[in-house]
Specification:
228 residues, alpha+beta, Jelly Rolls, seven-stranded mixed sheet, 3 helices, 17% helix, 41% strand, disordered N terminus
Length: 228
């Protein structure tokens, strides 16, 4: 009797989890879950492209790993600025919320996004709206975990006029642990630019330590746009 009850409970749990996965698939526009890339693959992941910044000296010290049961991209930097990008086409009227999982291991020592000479950050994620000419008119919102700037801080990049940072998490609490984040990208765009957003066309992942010349590491798990 106990065995049958345990089986039924297990079956119910499996059915519930499956229904949740189906609901996610119906309401989410998955950007990346790393499942199509072999474990141990290094460098620029399949489906992504390099995006070099002036003076960045990218090393692309990236590895596809399995960490605590989930596929992830382990991003490391030590004195370099490495960024990868992939094209997306997202309807923010349907799925306006960016959802992702990350595990930040360390920050670059001495980094301060407010100053040009120390404008570094551990791995972070951008949503991009390319516009011509790209270096002058494109718009990028970068979501960052910062060592000390308060969560909710909105900060224009000290180096690049097309980039605005949003601090989504602050401090050491949670370092070394998987954390899930959600941001209403459409609402952030309205707040920052004062107008309705068009459809974003790019997602980028970046880790930046070329100014402080110090190491940093973070892992990114699944990334998706979801409905409210």
């Amino acid at each position: 009797m106990v065995g049958r009850r345990a089986f039924l409970l297990s079956a119910c749990a499996w059915i519930l989890a499956a229904s949740r996965r189906r609901a996610w698939a119906q309401t989410a526009d998955v950007v990346e879950d790393w499942s199509g890339i072999p474990l141990g693959a290094r460098g620029i992941p399949l489906g992504w492209q390099k995006y070099e910044t002036f003076g960045g000296h990218p090393a692309y010290d990236f590895t596809i790993v399995s960490d605590e049961g989930r596929r992830a991209l382990d991003m490391r930097a030590a004195g370099d600025h490495s960024t990868i990008v992939r094209e997306v086409l997202v309807d923010l009227d349907v799925t306006p919320v960016l959802a992702w999982q990350w595990k930040v291991m360390s920050f670059p020592r001495g980094a301060d996004l407010r100053a040009r000479e120390t404008s570094d950050a551990t791995a972070h994620i951008f949503v991009g709206w390319p516009r011509f000419p790209a270096m002058l008119r494109s718009r990028l919102i970068g979501y960052v975990w910062d060592p000390f700037l308060p969560a909710g801080t909105i900060l224009r990049s000290a180096k690049t006029s097309t980039v605005t940072f949003v601090i989504v998490r602050s401090g050491d609490a949670g370092l070394g642990q998987w954390t899930g984040e959600t941001r209403d990208v459409a609402a952030d765009y309205r707040m920052i630019y004062g107008e309705e957003p068009s459809r974003p066309q790019a997602i980028a992942l970046s880790i930046d330590t070329n100014d402080t010349r110090s190491p940093a590491e973070a892992l990114f798990g699944p990334i998706a746009f979801i409905a409210h």
